[in-house]
Specification:
Blueprint (H helix, E strand, L loop, with lengths): L1 E5 L2 E4 L4 E8 L7 E7 L6 E6 L5 E3 L7 E6 L4 E6 L8 E8 L14 E2 L3 E6 L1
Parallel strand pairs: 2-11
Antiparallel strand pairs: 1-3, 3-8, 4-5, 4-9, 5-6, 7-8, 9-10, 9-11
Length: 123
């Protein structure tokens, strides 16, 4: 599975960005697809994801601000990020777990990763 992420950029606090991740060689609707992020000097952390069933999950700090969706027709997942804060600044990575592990927040359970896309939020 190859993943192509897009949509990062620079915004002011309170602004919005939409990240997209397109898959080839695999079908998102069969897997768990998630977004992780990594800020300088910090470990990679889960942001949000969508299971093969369509159920979504979010890291606590983004609940109510970020929305994860999946477009089956285009085999793409999106992360709509609203009310962005400076602490959301990081490189964002999309990832796929083809084994449908229960532990969806564990990065090591993911088999394929896209290239990172930088999100910078200024105060």
């Amino acid at each position: 599975v190859q993943l192509q992420a897009s949509g990062g950029g620079s915004v002011q606090a309170g602004g919005s960005l939409r990240l997209s991740c397109a898959a080839s060689g695999g079908t998102f609707s069969r897997y768990t697809a998630s977004w992780f992020r990594q800020a300088p000097g910090k470990e990679r952390e889960i942001v949000a994801g969508i299971r093969w069933s369509g159920s979504t999950f979010y890291e606590d700090s983004v609940k109510g601000r970020f929305t994860m969706t999946r477009d089956n027709a285009k085999n793409t997942v999106h992360l709509q990020m609203n009310s962005l804060k400076p602490e959301d600044t990081a490189v964002y990575y999309c990832a796929v777990d083809i084994n449908r592990n229960v532990a969806v927040r564990v990065a090591s359970n993911y088999d394929f990763w896209g290239q990172g896309t930088q999100v910078t939020v200024s105060s």
